[in-house]
């Protein structure tokens, strides 16, 4: 009886493998783009999906459908969104047990989903999160005869180390897991030259695919700024933008000749886009803004500070800020989560962008800065090892060390705002002059297209 059961098992496995490796009826190539996270908060992977579709791949975009996606994704007939079922939190169990159940759930749901879809030619998976996404993608790539691309945004183990410490056994295990699976991938991509050099130390050859802006992000016309600033009150109900009528905002309005006119006494708009995670130092921004204007410098504007994004630490910081509002005499805050198509428009209205990203590994670069540059907004970025690959000091932005330094930089840039702030205007001029050379599609075609022999 046992030999018979073993034979049946082997036959079933062979038939299953044959089915999974069966060529597609369609002659169109198929690409899986996998994010074990919120697709709406994974712009780089969405950009991969769009680029694969331009090269006539039938794209399966796989992840959690939590946030609204851009119309460039939803209206693309070559891209199918394949949502995963989220893990339901289990109460009353130790954290380690919950984490183990979550990994098993993610592995099972992702594996089943990938087996249900047509046979892929290419699988592109985001790392992190690395467990179990890399392992699951590798299994499917080997079983179904696809090429595996690992796109390294950061190290998963370094993010775990923020919580558990670098010497914790889970962190050490995750580190070995990531480097071993990375060596088995067909293609490795990463976001900075410093990252590629570090991967090479661990026997992983990676090509640098820098984040570049898509066509969604561009320097706005005054009319576009006028429309989105009005919308921030009429649709999103943020009173910081309210004007004298529904046809105007606090910052810009139409005069009697129907010309778009900026208010001469308008506040400066400062934007920080964040994922509200442990590798971003929010205290730096809030401490700097407490100090802003305290030296009683003349010709400093008030500030409307917009902090966009979702993430695990958002609620506690917003609550803390509400309790301390009196400590910010020259600053107003709002914390919007915008439609995917409105976010780049609001970003383009900013006078200064702030990047609080301090990479857990020291090797990744914040895509939010790329977005800010694309709409012509200079950036103040907190210093870490490879940020200089993106932010060129006093050319397209400034780099600061701590809250005092950020406060001084903001006061220096905004002194004389809006009509007489030469330092800020110089950064904007330098930035806009470089924009024609920045393009995601060109970068993708120059780096990944040759690796795929397209």
Q: What labels would you give this structure?
A:
single chain, 454 residues, alpha/beta, Rossmann fold, 2 domains, seven-stranded parallel sheet, six-stranded parallel sheet, 15 strands, globular
Description:
- The structure is a single chain.
- This protein has helices spanning 2-20, 43-54, 71-74, 95-116, 133-144, 156-164, 169-184, 193-201, 222-234, 282-291, 314-323, 343-347, 367-374, 403-414, 422-434, 440-451, and strands at residues 29-38, 57-64, 79-83, 122-127, 147-152, 187-190, 206-208, 252-254, 260-262, 268-273, 303-308, 331-334, 352-355, 379-382, 397-400.
- The chain is of the alpha/beta class.
- The chain folds into two domains: 24-212 and 441-451, Glycogen Phosphorylase B (Rossmann fold); 222-437, Rossmann fold (3-Layer(aba) Sandwich), CATH 3.40.50.
- The strands form three sheets. A seven-stranded parallel sheet has the order 3-2-1-4-5-6-7, sandwiched between helices. The chain has a six-stranded parallel sheet with strand order 12-11-10-13-14-15, sandwiched between helices.
- α8 links the parallel β6 and β7.
- The protein is globular, with a radius of gyration of 24 Å.
């Amino acid at each position: 009886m046992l030999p018979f059961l073993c034979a049946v098992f082997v036959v079933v496995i062979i038939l299953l493998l044959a089915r999974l490796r069966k060529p597609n009826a369609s002659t169109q190539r198929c690409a899986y783009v996998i994010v074990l996270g919120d697709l709406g908060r994974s712009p780089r992977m969405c950009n991969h999906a769009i680029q694969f579709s331009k090269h006539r791949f039938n794209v399966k975009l796989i992840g959690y459908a939590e946030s609204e996606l851009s119309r460039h994704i939803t209206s693309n007939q070559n891209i199918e969104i394949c949502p995963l079922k989220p893990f339901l939190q289990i109460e009353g169990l130790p954290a380690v047990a919950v984490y183990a159940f979550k990994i098993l759930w993610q592995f099972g749901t992702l594996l089943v989903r990938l087996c249900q879809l047509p046979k892929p030619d290419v699988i592109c998976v985001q790392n992190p999160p690395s467990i179990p996404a890399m392992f699951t993608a590798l299994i499917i790539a080997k079983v179904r005869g696809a090429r595996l691309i690992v796109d390294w945004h950061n190290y998963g183990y370094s993010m775990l180390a923020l919580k558990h410490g670098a010497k914790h056994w889970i962190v050490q295990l995750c580190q070995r897991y990531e480097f071993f699976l990375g060596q088995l991938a067909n293609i490795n991509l990463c976001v900075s030259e410093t990252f590629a050099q570090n991967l090479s130390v661990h026997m992983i050859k990676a090509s640098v695919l820098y984040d570049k802006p898509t066509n969604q992000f561009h320097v706005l016309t005054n009319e576009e700024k006028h429309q989105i600033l009005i919308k921030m009150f009429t649709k999103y109900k943020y009173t910081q933008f309210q004007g004298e009528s529904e046809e105007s905002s606090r910052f810009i309005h139409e005069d009697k000749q129907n010309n778009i006119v900026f208010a001469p006494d308008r506040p400066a708009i400062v934007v920080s886009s964040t994922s509200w995670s442990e590798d971003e130092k929010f205290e730096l921004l809030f401490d700097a803004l407490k100090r802003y204007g305290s030296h009683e410098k003349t010709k400093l504007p008030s500030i409307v500070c917009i902090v966009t994004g979702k993430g695990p630490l958002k609620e506690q910081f917003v609550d803390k800020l509400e309790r301390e509002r009196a400590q910010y005499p020259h600053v107003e805050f709002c914390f919007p989560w915008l439609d995917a198509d409105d976010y780049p428009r609001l970003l383009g209205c900013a006078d200064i962008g702030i990047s609080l990203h301090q990479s857990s590994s020291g090797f990744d670069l914040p895509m939010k800065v790329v977005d800010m540059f694309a709409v012509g907004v200079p950036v103040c970025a907190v210093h870490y090892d490879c940020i200089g690959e993106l932010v060129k000091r006093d050319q397209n932005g400034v780099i600061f060390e701590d809250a005092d330094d950020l406060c001084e930089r903001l006061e220096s840039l905004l002194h004389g705002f809006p009509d007489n702030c030469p330092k800020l205007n110089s950064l904007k001029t330098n930035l806009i002059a470089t924009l024609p050379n920045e393009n995601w599609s060109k970068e993708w075609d120059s780096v990944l297209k040759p690796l795929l022999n397209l």
